[in-house]
Amino acid sequence: MTEENQTPVPAPAAAAKPRSARRRAREFAVQGVYQWQLTGDGVNAIERYLKESNPAFGRADENLFRAIFYGVLKDPEALKTALVPHIDRPFEEVSPVEAAVLFAAAFEIAHMPETPYPVIVNEAIELAKTFGGTDGHRFVNGVLDKLAAQLRPVELEAVRAKRRH
To answer: Within 13 Å and on the Cβ side, how many CA atoms surround 69?
Structure first.
Protein backbone atom coordinates (compact mmCIF):
# COMPACT_ATOMS: atom_id res chain seq x y z
CA MET A 1 0.00 0.00 0.00
CA THR A 2 1.48 3.34 -0.97
CA GLU A 3 1.32 6.55 1.03
CA GLU A 4 -1.11 8.08 -1.50
CA ASN A 5 -3.83 5.45 -1.20
CA GLN A 6 -3.78 4.88 2.53
CA THR A 7 -7.26 5.47 3.84
CA PRO A 8 -7.37 6.51 7.47
CA VAL A 9 -8.95 3.76 9.49
CA PRO A 10 -11.37 5.01 12.13
CA ALA A 11 -9.80 4.93 15.55
CA PRO A 12 -11.76 3.56 18.50
CA ALA A 13 -13.04 6.02 21.03
CA ALA A 14 -11.43 5.97 24.47
CA ALA A 15 -12.67 2.96 26.38
CA ALA A 16 -13.69 2.97 30.01
CA LYS A 17 -12.07 -0.39 30.69
CA PRO A 18 -9.17 -2.24 29.07
CA ARG A 19 -10.11 -4.17 25.96
CA SER A 20 -9.53 -7.90 25.78
CA ALA A 21 -7.30 -9.45 23.13
CA ARG A 22 -10.43 -10.81 21.43
CA ARG A 23 -12.12 -7.38 21.37
CA ARG A 24 -8.96 -5.87 19.89
CA ALA A 25 -8.89 -8.63 17.25
CA ARG A 26 -12.46 -7.81 16.26
CA GLU A 27 -11.65 -4.09 16.17
CA PHE A 28 -8.73 -4.67 13.82
CA ALA A 29 -10.78 -7.07 11.67
CA VAL A 30 -13.49 -4.41 11.29
CA GLN A 31 -10.85 -1.77 10.51
CA GLY A 32 -9.34 -4.07 7.89
CA VAL A 33 -12.69 -4.80 6.26
CA TYR A 34 -13.48 -1.08 6.31
CA GLN A 35 -10.17 -0.29 4.62
CA TRP A 36 -10.75 -3.03 2.03
CA GLN A 37 -14.18 -1.58 1.19
CA LEU A 38 -12.76 1.89 0.64
CA THR A 39 -9.46 1.06 -1.08
CA GLY A 40 -9.81 -2.40 -2.57
CA ASP A 41 -6.31 -3.16 -1.29
CA GLY A 42 -5.30 -6.79 -0.81
CA VAL A 43 -5.53 -8.56 2.54
CA ASN A 44 -1.77 -8.83 2.99
CA ALA A 45 -1.21 -5.11 2.42
CA ILE A 46 -4.04 -4.21 4.80
CA GLU A 47 -2.81 -6.58 7.50
CA ARG A 48 0.72 -5.19 7.18
CA TYR A 49 -0.63 -1.62 7.42
CA LEU A 50 -2.67 -2.43 10.53
CA LYS A 51 0.31 -4.11 12.22
CA GLU A 52 2.75 -1.33 11.36
CA SER A 53 0.47 1.62 12.10
CA ASN A 54 -0.87 0.58 15.49
CA PRO A 55 1.27 -0.65 18.38
CA ALA A 56 -1.84 -2.10 20.05
CA PHE A 57 -2.02 -4.74 17.31
CA GLY A 58 0.45 -6.81 19.31
CA ARG A 59 -2.10 -7.04 22.14
CA ALA A 60 -4.81 -8.45 19.85
CA ASP A 61 -5.62 -12.13 19.45
CA GLU A 62 -3.93 -12.47 16.07
CA ASN A 63 -5.49 -15.84 15.31
CA LEU A 64 -8.99 -14.46 15.81
CA PHE A 65 -8.16 -11.35 13.80
CA ARG A 66 -6.89 -13.44 10.90
CA ALA A 67 -9.81 -15.89 11.06
CA ILE A 68 -12.36 -13.08 10.83
CA PHE A 69 -10.52 -10.73 8.46
CA TYR A 70 -9.37 -13.36 5.99
CA GLY A 71 -12.67 -15.22 6.37
CA VAL A 72 -14.72 -12.17 5.43
CA LEU A 73 -12.55 -11.35 2.44
CA LYS A 74 -12.46 -14.95 1.23
CA ASP A 75 -16.11 -14.67 0.16
CA PRO A 76 -17.71 -11.31 0.99
CA GLU A 77 -20.46 -11.88 -1.58
CA ALA A 78 -21.76 -14.93 0.32
CA LEU A 79 -21.90 -12.87 3.52
CA LYS A 80 -23.60 -10.01 1.71
CA THR A 81 -26.16 -12.46 0.29
CA ALA A 82 -26.89 -13.72 3.83
CA LEU A 83 -27.21 -10.16 5.21
CA VAL A 84 -29.28 -8.49 2.47
CA PRO A 85 -32.66 -10.10 3.34
CA HIS A 86 -32.39 -8.63 6.85
CA ILE A 87 -31.52 -5.07 5.78
CA ASP A 88 -34.20 -2.47 5.17
CA ARG A 89 -32.33 -0.63 2.41
CA PRO A 90 -30.03 -1.43 -0.49
CA PHE A 91 -26.73 -2.75 0.86
CA GLU A 92 -24.88 0.02 -0.97
CA GLU A 93 -26.64 2.55 1.30
CA VAL A 94 -25.31 0.96 4.50
CA SER A 95 -22.44 3.02 5.88
CA PRO A 96 -19.01 1.45 5.31
CA VAL A 97 -18.46 1.25 9.07
CA GLU A 98 -21.73 -0.57 9.73
CA ALA A 99 -21.14 -2.80 6.70
CA ALA A 100 -17.68 -3.74 8.03
CA VAL A 101 -19.16 -4.60 11.44
CA LEU A 102 -21.94 -6.63 9.78
CA PHE A 103 -19.49 -8.52 7.56
CA ALA A 104 -17.27 -9.44 10.51
CA ALA A 105 -20.14 -10.51 12.77
CA ALA A 106 -21.93 -12.38 9.97
CA PHE A 107 -18.75 -14.35 9.33
CA GLU A 108 -18.52 -15.27 13.02
CA ILE A 109 -22.19 -16.26 13.22
CA ALA A 110 -21.94 -18.37 10.07
CA HIS A 111 -18.52 -19.95 10.53
CA MET A 112 -17.52 -19.85 14.20
CA PRO A 113 -20.14 -21.88 16.10
CA GLU A 114 -17.79 -22.19 19.08
CA THR A 115 -18.56 -18.54 19.89
CA PRO A 116 -22.11 -18.10 21.25
CA TYR A 117 -24.14 -15.85 18.99
CA PRO A 118 -25.13 -13.47 21.84
CA VAL A 119 -21.41 -12.78 22.38
CA ILE A 120 -20.93 -12.06 18.68
CA VAL A 121 -23.94 -9.74 18.55
CA ASN A 122 -22.89 -7.92 21.72
CA GLU A 123 -19.36 -7.44 20.41
CA ALA A 124 -20.75 -6.12 17.10
CA ILE A 125 -22.99 -3.67 18.95
CA GLU A 126 -19.99 -2.40 20.93
CA LEU A 127 -17.93 -2.06 17.73
CA ALA A 128 -20.76 -0.14 16.06
CA LYS A 129 -20.94 2.17 19.09
CA THR A 130 -17.17 2.67 18.99
CA PHE A 131 -16.72 3.26 15.27
CA GLY A 132 -20.15 4.02 13.85
CA GLY A 133 -22.81 6.67 13.85
CA THR A 134 -25.19 7.56 16.65
CA ASP A 135 -27.80 4.84 16.12
CA GLY A 136 -25.75 2.45 13.99
CA HIS A 137 -25.58 -0.05 16.83
CA ARG A 138 -29.37 -0.45 16.79
CA PHE A 139 -29.34 -1.19 13.09
CA VAL A 140 -26.49 -3.70 13.52
CA ASN A 141 -28.32 -5.38 16.42
CA GLY A 142 -31.54 -5.79 14.43
CA VAL A 143 -29.81 -7.23 11.36
CA LEU A 144 -27.66 -9.66 13.34
CA ASP A 145 -30.55 -10.87 15.49
CA LYS A 146 -32.43 -11.80 12.31
CA LEU A 147 -29.35 -13.44 10.80
CA ALA A 148 -28.74 -15.45 13.98
CA ALA A 149 -32.37 -16.59 13.98
CA GLN A 150 -31.88 -17.87 10.44
CA LEU A 151 -28.43 -19.46 10.85
CA ARG A 152 -28.56 -20.63 14.48
CA PRO A 153 -32.22 -21.36 15.25
CA VAL A 154 -31.50 -24.10 17.83
CA GLU A 155 -29.09 -21.90 19.75
CA LEU A 156 -31.49 -18.96 19.56
CA GLU A 157 -34.32 -21.04 21.00
CA ALA A 158 -32.08 -22.32 23.81
CA VAL A 159 -31.13 -18.73 24.72
CA ARG A 160 -34.78 -17.65 24.67
CA ALA A 161 -35.82 -20.64 26.81
CA LYS A 162 -33.09 -19.84 29.33
CA ARG A 163 -34.32 -16.23 29.56
CA ARG A 164 -37.90 -17.41 30.23
CA HIS A 165 -36.78 -19.42 33.25
So the answer is: 29
Q: Return d(Cα 107, Cα 70) in angstroms, integer.
A: 10
Whether 69 maps to a domain, the answer reads: yes
| CA-closest candidate to residue 33, choices 2, 81, 67, 60 | 67
H or E, element range at 44? helix 43-53
pLDDT in tens, 24-66: 999 999 999 999 999 999 999 999 999 999 999 999 999 999 9
Is residue 128 within 8 A of residue 142, CB to CB? The reply is no
Q: Is residue 7 part of a domain?
A: no
**26 CB contacts (<8 Å, ≥6 apart)?**
64, 65, 68, 104, 123, 127
